[in-house]
Amino acid sequence: MVEPADWRHVTKVDPDKGMSEEKMRDIAVSGTDAVVVGGTQGVTREKVLSLLSSVDADVPVVVEPSNPASAVGAGDALLVPTVLNADTVDWVVGIHKEWARTEDVDWSRVVGEGYIVMNPDSAVGRLTGADTSLSPQEAAGYAEVADGLFDLPVVYVEYSGTFGDTEVIEAVADAVDDATVFYGGGVDGYDRAKEAARYADCIVVGDAVHEKGVDALRETVRGVDDARGV
Amino acid sequence: MVEPADWRHVTKVDPDKGMSEEKMRDIAVSGTDAVVVGGTQGVTREKVLSLLSSVDADVPVVVEPSNPASAVGAGDALLVPTVLNADTVDWVVGIHKEWARTEDVDWSRVVGEGYIVMNPDSAVGRLTGADTSLSPQEAAGYAEVADGLFDLPVVYVEYSGTFGDTEVIEAVADAVDDATVFYGGGVDGYDRAKEAARYADCIVVGDAVHEKGVDALRETVRGVDDARGV
Q: Binding positions for Mg(2+) (chains A, B) (predicted)?
């Protein structure tokens, strides 16, 4: 089983955007702790399997379906989001119930993630109708529920596409006892990686590797390392 | 900490209905494994504290607030429901987030319960707008989410006031790996206690003790014991 608690830097690759085999190999040795294959739109089994087949890495490669119905059994584990601040029950428990009803889920491969979606203009924000107007204290409240009531191993502050309010990240990190706090959104280089890593346990880099390449990714790894005094 | 996994029979006392000190003492030695103080309507701190103060029992006495905001720090633990099939996010995560935001919650005292509410005419059914038209497979899907994704220690099939569909209870019990399955609703004597105990791990008796008394409660304990060959 994968251990997200040990991760400090994660690279998220969007199968809808694609990634060359060479780049996937470079990512795997960039210093990142895990490769997450996932995205909100146009994620099909074929695209996910194609990406997974191109990785031959020592780092874990995990699949994160926005809807678990598009999940595949490949990869080292399945990260399954529940969007805590969604506006309908579908994204909290509904699609998960349907997934469990229609497939024979191997829960031992599932790592639950309590998402707090904070960017209303992101694909995930629009899709889930998330209440992104949360105060740091409200975000922290959701984080406590994810950690204390649901025992989710990961609490994920998702600003997808924009760099977040560090007060929110800090409040969430302070509220959580056991879960690992992921931060994602706008981490495009050394400075922002270092800044976000001051608060979150693990930084997720996604768009930057698609848009700027693996050199930029390595800079984010360096930022995280420096924030931790590695 | 209390261990719901060890419970086979639980007595639920509604603080809004009240219970004499003498009856509370009789309940505590009836053979029930725990006394749960909780109800959907009119539950105030004063009523809960009054009931708790009248119990001097070897069995655990726990508080189950329908809304955790009415929770008290008394009792041996706090059972906190999340209604998985509610029609709004409020009853799944919303009121819990507000609770965490406004109070300093001691999560080590909290036992999470994944409720599947099945009686549309019950107070909890009306309050939460639960989708009570679930097939056994859908109820089982929610149970898997509660058990596999959220790691809730208790999955609670709640028919509140009427005896349930044993196919639903059985499907839920079959779907769950780790959680303890509670069943509540219409258990008013020996036969129904024995029948429900064929499927669920733990039977909850509520109305019967208020309406029929402690003798009826003892009969339900005997029904559970016989179902288990004790």
A: 14, 40
